[in-house]
Amino acid sequence: MSMLDRAQCEALDASDPLAAARDRFHLPEGVIYLDGNSLGALPKATARRIDDVIRGQWGDDLITGWNKHGWVDLPRALGAKIAKLIGADADEVVVCDSTSLNVFKLLSAALALRPDRRIILSDNGNFPTDLYMAQGLAQLLGRDHRLEIVAPDAVIDRIGEDVAVVMLTEVDYRTGRRHDMAAINARAKAAGVHTLWDLAHSAGALPVDLNGSGADFAVGCGYKYLNGGPGAPAFLFVARRWQDATQQPLFGWFGHAAPFAFETAYQPKSGIDRFLVGTPPVLGMAALACGLETFDGIDLNLVRQKSLALGDLMIRLVAQECPDFDLALASPVGAERGSQVSYAHPSGYAVMQALIARGVIGDFRAPNLIRFGFTPLYVRYRDIWDAVAALKAVLATAEWQNPALNRRAAVT
Amino acid sequence: MSMLDRAQCEALDASDPLAAARDRFHLPEGVIYLDGNSLGALPKATARRIDDVIRGQWGDDLITGWNKHGWVDLPRALGAKIAKLIGADADEVVVCDSTSLNVFKLLSAALALRPDRRIILSDNGNFPTDLYMAQGLAQLLGRDHRLEIVAPDAVIDRIGEDVAVVMLTEVDYRTGRRHDMAAINARAKAAGVHTLWDLAHSAGALPVDLNGSGADFAVGCGYKYLNGGPGAPAFLFVARRWQDATQQPLFGWFGHAAPFAFETAYQPKSGIDRFLVGTPPVLGMAALACGLETFDGIDLNLVRQKSLALGDLMIRLVAQECPDFDLALASPVGAERGSQVSYAHPSGYAVMQALIARGVIGDFRAPNLIRFGFTPLYVRYRDIWDAVAALKAVLATAEWQNPALNRRAAVT
After folding, report:
1. Sign of the C-alpha dihedral, residues A263, A269, A273, A277?
2. Is-above-0.90 flag for pTM?
3. What CATH architecture does domain A6-42+299-401 belong to?
4. Taking a contact as any Cβ pair under 8 Å apart, which residues of chain B between 263 and 282 contact chain A?
5. Interface contact flag, A97 B278, Cβ < 8 Å
6. Can you tell me the ipTM of this complex?
7. Among the four B7, B114, B145, B205, which has the fewest Cβ within 10 Å?
8. Where are the domains of chain B?
9. Quick check: B51 and A50 CB within 8 A?
10. In Å, how far are A239, B268, B362 from A95, measured between CA atoms?
C-alpha cells in the first residue's frame, strides 16, 4: 500500500459531501476533537437558543411558557426527531431522564412481558451502568432474576428459551465493536426473547433500523453524537406493539392519563407517554433540540461512510507512522466497527494525557485503551493526519512519561 | 378592623427588610407574579451564567469541562447549598433527577429498612406523583406493600407499628396547609416508622429543620421557590445515619464506588453519593445554582415572616374588597399555612384565566381552587393589593364568563 501524506487527506476533505456541516459547530482553535462519542461539540445555534428560552420564554412568560412555548410537548417533539435517526416512528420515541433510568424502565417493562423467565442476558462489552441497573432491578424484584454476562461474540448462541431479555449496547464503548442487531433480533424473536438496545454509541453515528430489524426496546444518550450538551436528557424507544401491552414501574405524573386532573390513583396514558415520569428539563431539552438540528438535511448513509473512512484512515496512518511503538489495535476493521478506533497501550492513560496537552482530545478507558471517536459532521480527514502526527510525536519522545500529566478520567 | 388601602401596602414595602432582594430577579413589566410556587421567576444572573457554561465551558473546553469546571461535583455542591435552607448537613443532600424519581429511590430505601412492615402511609393532600411513585413501587415489589391514604389531619393518629414509612408533602399544593413535621417525626420515631418528606412547597419558602426535627428522608423540587428554571433538577436528603445502612435500587454509575473504573458489578459509594444514578444535567444544574444564589445572605426567618404577612394581607383584602362574591377561603389562617393562599370558586378555572389576562398570574387546581403563591424575595405588599383589585374587577364584571378564556392547566 502506498504511503499517505497530509495533502491526500486535505484532498479527501475537499471532496467530502459532509464538509459544510462542520460550520454548524463551534470548535475551538488549535484543538482536534476526537471525543464526540463522549461529549458532542457545541452547535453554533445552542447559545442563542438557550438565551431565548431563558430570557424570552421563562423570563417573560413565566409559568405560561409550559403551553405558550410548548415545553410540555418537548419529550415527544424531540423524540420524533430522534426517531428519524434510528429507524423508528415518531410516536415510538420520547426524550426523558437519563440513559440509566431509561434502561431500568424498559428492562422492567420487558421482564413483565415474560413473567415465566428469569434471565437478563448481556455481554461484558456493555456499558457498566446498564449492567448496574439490571442488577438493581433484579435485587429489587427479589424473584431470582439473574443477569448473565457473556462475551460479546457468545451472545447470539446463548439466546434461548430460558432468557427473558437480551440487553446490549450496539457499539462497544471501549472497542467500537458493533453487534449485528438484525441477527440478534431475529434469533431473539425465534426464542421468544425481547431485545433492549442501548444506542449510546450508535444514534447519530450510523443509521440504526430499529423497526426494520424488529427491535423491541431501546435507549440512548443525548450528549454524545446527538450534541445535546453535558448531561443532556436521554431517549427511549418502545415498539408500538408493546406500548399498551406493558408499562414501566416509575409511575410519574407525566406518564399519567390525565396529569393535570391530579387524581390519586395512577392510570397510565396510552402510548409512549406512559414511559415519562417527572417534569421535563426544559433547558436541557432545548439544547438537545439544537443538537438534533445539526442533522437536518444530513444523509446518515453519508455519515456512516465518512465515519468508516475516518476510522480506516486512522488505522492506516497509525500503521504507517507509528509501527515501532507499543500500540495494539483494539477495534474491528471494517463494518463491524462503530464510529471509533481504540488502541491498547501499556501506559494508555499517560499517552492520552500527553495527546490532550498537545490539543488532540480523545479519551482513556481502563485498563489500557486510548479511544478516538469520529463525528463525521465536524471531524475532517486532515484532523486524523494531525492526530496521528501528534501521537507519533508523543510516543517518539516519550513525553507521555512526564509525571505532571495527571487528570481524572472524563465522563463517557 | 380598619379598612386597608394601597398606600398602607406601599408603606409595608418601604419598611420591608427583604425589599432589595427583588432586584435579583427579572420580572416582566405589567405582571404580578403569584405563581412562584409553580415556577420560580428568572434570577438576573442566570442567562449570563448559562451562556458562559455553554460557550466558555462546553464550547471551549469540551469533555475536559467535567473536571476543569467541576461539572462532576455539581450534585454535591448544589446539595450543600440546599442543605442550609432545610436544616441538613452539607453531606446529606444531593441534587439529581426529578422529585418523582427521588421519591422512588428514598421510598425503596426506607422500605428496605423495615422489611417486616408493608404499609406506606400518606394523605390525600399529597401531590399525586408522590402517590403514583409509591403505587408503582408497591406493584413492582409484589410483596403486598400497600399505600394507605388518609385525610391530612388523620395522619398522626394513624402512625402505628404496622406502618413502614410515612410519606408526606409538608405543605399541601392545593390548600397550603402545613403539617407539623416535628410532631409527626416524633410520633413516627416512637412507632419505628421512617419519614419521607416532600419539601416541594417548603424549601426556600420557609425554614425547614430536617435534622432538628429528626426527619429520615426528604425530597424537593428545584423549580419552585428555588428558582432553578422549568424542569430544574430536584434534590434529595438522607439523614447521615441511614446513608450507609441502606441503598436505593436505581444502581447507576454515578452512585458506584468507582464510576470510572468501569467495573461489571455494582458497588455503592459510601455516603450520599449512592443516591445518584446517571450523568448530571449540567445546564439545569448551572441554572439551579443561580436560583440558589438568590438566597445568599437572606435570613429565612424573615422570608417566613414576610410570606405569612403577604398571605394574611391577601386574606384580609379579599374579605374587605370581595365580600359579595362566591369565594371560599381554602387555606389555613396563621402559621399552619405554607406560602400560598387558595380560594374555592365554582368557576375557578375561568376566573384564573381572566386574572391572567389582566396580568395577575396565579394558577388553578382541580376541582375548583384558584391559588396564589407568595415568593417573599420578589413579591411586594402592593402586588397583593393590585392582585385583589384585579380579582374584584374580574368578579364584579363577570369577565371570567368570557368563553374565549381557555387554556390548559399549567405545571405545578
Report:
1. positive
2. yes
3. Alpha-Beta Complex (3.90)
4. 263-266, 277-282
5. yes
6. 0.96
7. B7
8. 6-44+299-401, 70-293
9. yes
10. 15, 27, 29
